[in-house]
Amino acid sequence: MTVLACDDLDCGYFQDNPCVRGVDLAVDEGQVIALLGPNGAGKTTLLETLAGLVPRIGGTVSVKGTPVKSGDARRAVRAGMVLVPDDRALFKNLTTEQNLALAIPQRTIGGLVSNRRSVAEGVAQTVSRFPALEKRLKVKAGQLSGGEQQMLAISRALLQRPNVLLIDELSMGLAPVIVESILPVLREVAASDGTAVILVEQHVRLALDVADRALVLVHGDIVIDESAASLAADPGRLEKAYLGG
Ligand SMILES: Nc1ncnc2c1ncn2[C@@H]1O[C@H](COP(=O)(O)OP(=O)(O)OP(=O)(O)O)[C@@H](O)[C@H]1O
Description:
Elements: E1 2-11, E2 20-28, E3 32-36, H1 43-50, E4 58-63, E5 66-67, H2 73-78, E6 81-84, H3 96-102, E7 107-109, E8 112-114, H4 116-129, H5 146-158, E9 164-167, H6 176-193, E10 196-200, H7 204-210, E11 213-218, E12 221-227, H8 228-232, H9 235-242
Parallel strand pairs: 3-10, 3-11, 6-9, 9-10
Antiparallel strand pairs: 1-2, 1-4, 4-5, 7-8, 11-12
C-alpha cells in the first residue's frame, strides 16, 4: 500500500524559482528510502516541505490517500508525517523522560487530563528499542551524548506513531558506530509498524545498506530512483551523479 504520494511537487523559497522540482514519488508501507545528494541539492528543503514547515510551490502530497495541506506542520503531523530535524530539536533543559512525555497526546479520562499511563508505556517502548536510554531517563536532554540525543529525537518521533518518518542528517556529529546501532532500529520499525522512512544520510554506504530504495537528488532534480542494492553495487554511478554527470 502506498503511504506517501507526491505528485509534481515543487519546493523552495521563491515562487518563481523552486530549488526542488517535479518530484513524483510513491512510497510504500514499510519502505526505507535513502535520500542522497550533494550539499545544497535540496534534501532538507524536500523533507521540510513534506513536514509542512516550508510551503509548497506546486504539486500535491498525500498520506494514505488523504491530501496534506501545504505549509501546515500541525496537519502534517496529524496525517502522520513526522520529521526528526538535523538539530534534533530537543528540549535541552527537560529530562529524557519529559521530552518523551511531551510527544504523547494527552487523554481525557473522566474529565481529567492525564497521560501518565501512556507515558509509562511510551518510556517502556523507547527503552526496549534503545536500551542505552534506560539509565538516562532522569538526565536533561542537553547533557546526553550526541548519539543518545539522536536516539531520544527518534524515539520522540516514533511515539507520535508516524506513517512517514522523515530523518534529516541522522549521523550529524555522530561516530559511524553509533549510526550503525541506530539504523537497525529504523529497519525494525519499518518492518513491524509499516512506517515508511525517508532518511537523509551523509554516510552513503550505511544508508544504502539499510535502505530498500535510493533517491538521488542533484540540483533539485531526482536523477536516480532505484533499489538501494543495485545502486550500492555500482558506486561509480553515484559518484558521477554527485559530480553532476
Ligand atoms: N531558508 C532559505 N531561504 C532561501 N534559500 C534557502 C533556504 N534554505 C535553503 N536554501 C537554499 O535551498 C537550496 C537547497 O538547500 P538544502 O538545505 O535543502 O540542501 P541540502 O541538500 O539539504 O544540503 P546539505 O546537504 O548541505 O544540508 C540551497 O541552494 C540553499 O542555499
